[in-house]
């Protein structure tokens, strides 16, 4: 029986993996193998070819296992893990009443604990890369970066550059931009933490700041993150304040370029679809967030038709990558496919692609991760398909989208290192983390000025009877 100790090359040589199936962009291949060395895939191809490149070296045999790229979460909030179900059943724009107050009380260590818990959950859910939109904790950014490293997840980490509250004019703006440039430089060569700049929502920044932050990220080939067109209230505020919808505003100030990664974009006019198509900007499609608190579902099929890069994001809802694939397809089917008789809605491959290599491209990491190919980072999953859900198997891509579940994930590798075995870290004490999180979360949630519209489920039930 396979164990975690089988998945390491103790002699410093390459790790040769021979799974039953190996997932490539064109589909699952049988009889293929992969060699991992120095954190990268060094050889990928038919087993005979990989063996010929490593004569005399033994394979790790992986019958009934699928080796697939790690999933990419193109939009999340790692320092919101303490809140989780506090936002359930709440109306839109919960960031104002739940997340801003809660993140505002986190010190560096609390932000670290929240981010480490969220990162572990993400790995358990099959995500090897997460894109964090930036913490609102004034002290927490360093803690988030350290949590990513200590947990072993790949993280595109946003530094928030809002200047709506700037009262120091040019000097204040310069401080924000200098800090942003320093942040990009500080993480330029980090193997796991990839720097990004963020504006929470366009209305949180001046036109000049939007332009300059997007220009900085474009010059550095990094991502500029912002939330756009998520809720009716935000679109209407932008129209009242600027005379333009959020995406139109980004375009008008020169901030809609190929460095942009736009979260949600659920409310799009035909013109905005065109602006996205022409700009090179990428989008994070968050279907679970739409179901739980949104006003609409993004027509991701239209983005695909127009060639707009997009990935799948959790928005911090639940860190389960295989359920996210299912939610992405289901949301498209219910909101767009039913009305026009489209029973496929892109097919299973669409959601699998945008959860892996297409998602990596949207995250700005398309040349680094998301594929099992020579030279790419060895960020991958081993899934156990020896179960009733995949018997008989006729269409593995569709089956992963509709039948795959987190408990099938045997192993999670990031940068060539085994991070989790059957959901648990192999080199740090997760139980100790859970105990500390429980204590600190109770403290910080109790002192945060949260405003909830609804009571907890049990209290709500009692009020309704």
UniProtKB/TrEMBL annotation:
Residues 67-416 form the Amidohydrolase-related domain. GO terms for molecular function: hydrolase activity, acting on carbon-nitrogen (but not peptide) bonds. Gene3D superfamilies: Metal-dependent hydrolases, Urease, subunit C, domain 1. Keywords: Hydrolase. It comes from the Bacteria. It holds the Pfam family Amidohydro_1. Coiled coil: none annotated. InterPro entries: Amidohydro-rel, Metal-dep_hydrolase_composite, Metal_Hydrolase, MTA/SAH_deaminase. SUPFAM superfamilies: Composite domain of metallo-dependent hydrolases, Metallo-dependent hydrolases. The keyword Hydrolase applies. Belongs to the metallo-dependent hydrolases superfamily. ATZ/TRZ family. This is Amidohydrolase family protein. It comes from Xenophilus arseniciresistens.
